[in-house]
Amino acid sequence: EKLLSCTTDAIVPFLDKLNAEIATIETFFVATLTQLEKKLNEIERERRASDDEQKGVLALREINRNLNALEEFSRLNYVSAAKILKKLDKSMESEVKTIYITEILNVQTFHTALSSTLRNLSERVE
């Protein structure tokens, strides 16, 4: 609501496009995170069923690399969106950035899950 009240007609199409891009990022992040969790659960089951302590070590390293890449993807997209909004505010003399970040960007899973979920999965991998 606050966001709509401070936008002009010229900014609305831009925000619609940004919202679509954020949704794409969110979908990719959630799908990738879910896939990595499933792989990790499978590896953990296999390791518990085996006497071989080295079983799945390479797969765990791969999951860890993927988690690190997903974390970088998430941070990069968050920072990019914030910079885009900063430029929008400057060029359109608006104050969209703070409201958009608070109401839209900060509630996305790719931002909120970044700390807790990725850290939790990384600890399980190590």
From TrEMBL:
User: Where does the SPX domain start and stop, copy by copy?
Assistant: 1-102
Q: What Pfam families is this protein classified in?
A: SPX
Against InterPro entries, the record matches this protein to: SPX_dom
Superkingdom, natural source: Eukaryota
What is the designated name of this protein?
SPX domain-containing protein
Name the species this protein comes from. Rhodosorus marinus
